[in-house]
Automatic annotation (TrEMBL):
InterPro entries: ThsB__TIR-like_domain, ThsB_TIR-like_sf. Pfam families: ThsB_TIR. Residues 9-105 form the Thoeris protein ThsB TIR-like domain. It comes from Klebsiella pneumoniae. This is TIR domain-containing protein. It comes from the Bacteria. SUPFAM superfamilies: Hypothetical protein MTH538.
Amino acid sequence: MTTKNYTAFVSHSWDYDKQLKNLKSLIEKNSTITIDYSEVTVDNRINSEQRDYIRGVLKKRIISSDVFLVMAGMYTSYSDWMKWEIETAKKNNIPVIAVKPRGAERIPVIIQENADVIVGWNSNSIVINIISAIENSSV
């Protein structure tokens, strides 16, 4: 079986950086795909405080991604950056996959209204939906 390589932007909260790392580890457990990640992290920041500049950099990364993953924690409701990232992905026809953090019972409205699919904290489910979303968006 051939391993497919994709680019993903993961919208997340820096306050929950461990969830991002855990998500990446979960995806890496599945050997059918590899992912190059393009999001901005606590360890890989944009060296600017200019909002328009930051948005420009983020937009380039989002629209050059094959898929947009978003951590579907309730904190998303309170993050203007995450809301903007989701809206940017949707406006540019990037497939949006929401991943429910382990144990999460509620999903923010912004995610319910914009996610193409919402998946649980399961490696196979996440990977299958990444492949499906990308293949369906390129048709």
